[in-house]
Amino acid sequence: AVKTMKTPPWLTLLALLALNGSHALAQTADQRALLDGVREIGAPGVPGPLCVFGRDAFPVVVGKAGEGAFAPVVAAAKLGRGRVVALGHTGYVEPETHADTGRLLVNAVRWAAQTNTVHVGVRRQPGLVKLLQAQGLAAESLDGNGWRERLKDLHVVCGNSESFAADADVTAVDKFIRDGGGFVTASLGWGWLQLNPGKSLTTHHAGNRLLAPAGIVWADGTLE
To answer: Do 102 and 39 form a contact (C-beta atoms < 8 A)?
Structure first.
C-alpha cells in the first residue's frame, strides 16, 4: 500500500515484503536489515521507478505506479562479493531527509558494508557525509583527484550515480563492488533523460551500466 502524507509534495512510500520460497526468505532477511526502524520515507519531488529482475536483486520500497500497480523506488542486490542499494531519486542522497529516509540510508550503508566497522566514502555529497558522521559512521568525502585510488581503504561508496559517469569511474567502482565493496547510489531515470537528450538509459546511464549485471536498472516514468 501507499500512504500519502498530509503536506505535499512528500509522498510516503511503504515497504514491499511479499516474497515466497527459500531464496526469497534470505532476501526477506536482507529487507528486514534494510528496513530496521523504517516505517515510511519521504519522496523528494517525483521519484522514478526501478526495474528489478536479477536473481539476487529484490525490492525494498515501492510506490504507486498507476491504478492498482506498484513499482520499486528502492532496491538492493548482491553482485560478485559485494552489495548494492539503488534509490529512485537523486534527492535521497542529499542532506535534507524526511520521515525515516535518513535511517534507511544508514541501514543501507551498514548492510552494504558487511562489517560492523564501516568506512564509507561519499562522492560530491557533503551533506550526506555529515549525516552519516552524525550517525556514528566513519564517513569521508571522495571529492578531488585520486579518489579512485582511495577505494581500497573503504567498505562502501555512496553518491549520485552521475558522479561516477566516466568510463574509468565505472570500471573502478565495478571492481570495488565485485571484490566485496558496497555501493549505495541514487538516480532518476526520467530526469536523466531530460538532461541527456539523444542518449540511452540502457547504454549511457552510469548507474545502469554498473547495476544492470546485478539485475537492477533505472527506468523512465514516474511514481505517484
So the answer is: no
Q: Is the pTM of this model over 0.85?
A: yes
End-to-end CA distance of the chain: give it in Å, rounded. Answer: 12
pLDDT digits (tens, 9 = 90+) for 153-165: 999 999 999 999 9
pLDDT in tens, 40-93: 888 888 999 999 999 999 999 998 898 889 999 999 999 999 999 999 999 999
Reference 60, options 10, 14, 1, 109; nearest CA is 14
